[in-house]
Design a protein that fits this description.
By secondary structure, the protein is mainly beta. The protein has 2 helices and 13 strands, in the order αββββββββββββαβ. It comes from Taibaiella lutea.
């Protein structure tokens, strides 16, 4: 039996097509990771608040700097946040940090945490976060996650002085950057 002269060419072309198919199958784009939106809290301390009577001369005009507020980040020795009023106990803790993550419950419009700046201390504050949640589709493998909009923050003032919402939007875009904080809490000045 004599083979057709194009048979070896056909065999080579078939092998090349199979090889290309395997190559393209190996080059499948990677799905993005499944992220959970989390609030990032930053804790700072009022260092000094004072009136400065220094004068600055600018082109024959005298300007008085009347108020200067200095705020520096305070490292907390062993902070702890414990979720309150939930079915399961959830604890967030750290060692010598200034930021803590704070997950939300998408089934509710608020969540409360008990906060201590140092687990060896006895004073704590209760932090309540009020938010709205929106489902967000990630991909077929991950399914849905929730994005949140932080409406307001309430806290007791045993250790903390005040809070400031920097970024109310909680999405995987800003929570994957650990350096970005959504809320800053300020400690009371130590006597």
């Amino acid at each position: 039996m004599k083979l057709h002269p194009n048979h070896s060419l056909l065999k080579k072309a078939s092998l090349a097509i199979i090889g290309l198919m395997l190559l393209f199958a190996a080059c499948k784009p990677k799905d993005p990771d499944c992220y959970q939106s989390t609030l990032v809290l930053n804790f700072s301390q009022f260092k000094t608040r004072y009136l400065d009577t220094n004068t600055v001369k600018i082109d024959s005009f005298t300007t008085i700097i009347d108020t200067i507020q200095r705020i520096t980040d305070s490292v907390m020795p062993a902070p702890e946040m414990l979720v309150l009023d939930e079915d399961s106990a959830y604890r967030v803790s750290g060692k010598e940090v200034i930021k803590l993550p704070c997950p939300f419950n998408p089934a509710k419009d608020s969540i409360r945490y008990r906060f201590r700046a140092d687990t060896s201390g006895t004073q704590y504050d209760t932090l309540t976060f009020f938010y709205t949640s929106t489902p967000h589709f990630i991909n077929n493998n991950c399914g849905y996650t929730y994005y949140y909009n932080l409406d307001r923050v309430a806290s007791t003032n045993h250790v903390l002085d005040s809070s400031y919402i920097i970024s109310p939007a909680l999405t995987d875009d800003n929570t994957n950057k650990a350096q970005n904080a959504n809320v800053i809490f300020y400690f009371k000045r130590k006597p």
